[in-house]
Amino acid sequence: MSLIEQKARELSRPILESIGQALARWNISPNAVSYLGLVLTIGVALLAAWGKFRWSGAVYIVAALCDALDGALARASGKGSRFGAFLDSTLDRLEESVVFLGLIVYYARAGRPIEPPLILLVTVGSLMVSYTRARAEAVGVTCREGLMTRPFRVALMIAGLTLNQVLIALIVLAVTSLFTTIQRMVHVWQMTGGEKGGWGPVKEPFSPPVPPTPAAWGNHDPKDVP
Questions:
Q1: What gap in Å lies between CA 116 and CA 96, rounded to an integer?
Q2: Cα–Cα nearest to 89, from 148, 38, 14
Q3: pLDDT tens-digit profile of 83-140?
Q4: What is the CATH number of domain 3-203?
Q5: Model-level pTM?
Q6: Are the CB atoms for 85 and 219 separated by under 8 Å?
Q7: Which one from 88, 92, 221, 224 is the annotated catalytic residue?
Q8: What's the rounded Cα separation, in Å, for the pair 149 and 134?
Q9: Angle of CA points 161, 39, 128, to nearest 5°
Q10: For residue 160, what are the contacts with CB-CB under 8 A and spacing of at least 6?
Q11: What is the pLDDT of residues 10-49, one digit of tens each?
Q12: 224 included as an active-site residue
């Protein structure tokens, strides 16, 4: 996790926790908030497909807020679960892909030959950033290297939509996501010792974030699979 992301989390956590506590008193499920985020993100994609980029960016802000709130709500309500963490990470990947699909539809209809393959490249890069961390943790390596984690990708896409500078945002995303993927691959190689390391111990072993009491575990904290 980068220093910038860590500071952003520290600054936003008190606000999110307060809202999460309020939602918990209304007995709202964290998974329901996750599903709401998905529905809103589909709206983002539809608006983008129609070329309503600024409206799309505005709705994306609300969808991103839902994505941030579900973890805070899980902690406040004590309704965290392994399935909730899995669901949230899965929906995160789906939401990113849906937004990119909406943009592809718009640019294809507009007869723009550059943007669709660029969006495909961005989609691959974004998914690879997440996959490299998930796969590294599956083989026992902690992997949070690189700047372009999901919060940064979403923030950059929101900025591109609201400022109507989508092409610039896509170019930056393509370069930085692929670079982050390479960073993580190099990191895992260093931690495992490459082929020579075999299946021996790693330098920074991954410890699953599963405290003994469910209330202490935010259902979507491990979600920040970025």
A1: 15
A2: 38
A3: 888 888 899 999 999 999 999 999 999 999 999 999 999 999 999 999 999 999 999 9
A4: 1.20.120.1760
A5: 0.84
A6: yes
A7: 92
A8: 13
A9: 65
A10: 57, 166, 167, 168, 169, 170
A11: 666 777 777 777 777 788 888 888 999 999 999 999 999 9
A12: no
